[in-house]
TrEMBL record:
PANTHER family: NADH DEHYDROGENASE [UBIQUINONE] IRON-SULFUR PROTEIN 2, MITOCHONDRIAL, NADH-UBIQUINONE OXIDOREDUCTASE 49 KDA SUBUNIT. Residues 74-213 form the NADH-quinone oxidoreductase subunit D domain. Belongs to the complex I 49 kDa subunit family. This is NADH-quinone oxidoreductase subunit D domain-containing protein. Gene3D superfamilies: Cytochrome-c3 Hydrogenase, chain B. Keywords: NAD, Translocase. InterPro entries: NADH_Q_OxRdtase_suD (IPR001135), NDH1_su_D/H (IPR022885), NiFe-Hase_large (IPR029014). It comes from the Eukaryota. The lineage of its organism: Eukaryota, Viridiplantae, Streptophyta, Embryophyta, Tracheophyta.
Length: 214
């Protein structure tokens, strides 16, 4: 904020511009918040250098609260980089970028893979299409991910969870299989295992959008 302050102070002094009292108070508040943020940036690494690791994280958390105020005051992301729904579709956007433009498209809902249709969660989306909307979508998705994890932990059934191909090693009791050189052998498919000869495209909803293989 100090660079901004001197940038406007110069023309104001040259033009003999009278700054409203309210604006002067707001500037002083923002400047002192900026001073605190700067000192916190010094204090965090200093505490870490002398062996106090935990305060480092708390200090940066408090610093982020100050920067949240700056972003709200300057509207740094609101109305910036707007991408409409039609543009998002034409450009092939997916994931949070697409959902922030008003398109409620999430492969976890569309393709219903794994157990996503057995837990309660909502597709997070915004209609504004700006940088703020993309931020809000990602923040909301983290909350939804926590909801999904909590429900999955509560409802996870019993039963096998390993691939059955590992059983082919049960016949071999040689301890040599535990050596480092053989660590990845169990990842190889069974010699008798065959896939049908056809083409297939598989996709999932990755954090940044659709991820697929052909």
């Amino acid at each position: 904020m100090f660079t901004e302050a001197i940038t406007v102070n110069g023309p104001e002094q040259l033009g003999n511009i009278q700054v409203p009292k309210r604006a002067s108070y707001i500037r002083a508040i923002m400047l002192e918040l900026s001073r605190i943020a700067s000192h916190l940036l010094w204090l965090g690494p200093f505490m870490a250098d002398i062996g106090a690791q935990t305060p480092f994280f708390y200090i940066f958390r408090e610093r982020e609260l100050i920067y949240d105020l700056f972003e709200a005051a300057t509207e740094r992301v609101e109305g910036v980089g707007i991408i409409g729904a039609e543009e998002a579709l034409n450009w092939g956007l997916s994931g949070p970028m697409l959902r922030a433009s008003g398109i409620q498209w999430d492969l976890r809902k569309v393709d219903r893979y794994e157990c996503y249709d057995e837990v309660d969660w909502e597709v997070q989306w915004q209609k504004e299409g700006d940088s703020l909307a993309r931020y809000l979508v990602r923040i909301s998705e983290m909350t939804e991910s926590i909801k999904i994890i909590q429900q999955a932990l509560e409802g996870i059934p019993g039963g096998p969870y390993e691939n059955l191909e590992i059983r082919r090693f049960d016949r071999i009791k040689d301890p040599e299989w535990n050596d480092f050189e053989y660590r990845f052998i169990s990842k190889k498919p069974s010699p008798t295992f065959e896939l049908s000869k056809q083409e297939l495209y598989v996709r999932v909803e990755a954090p940044k959008g659709e991820l697929g293989i052909f």
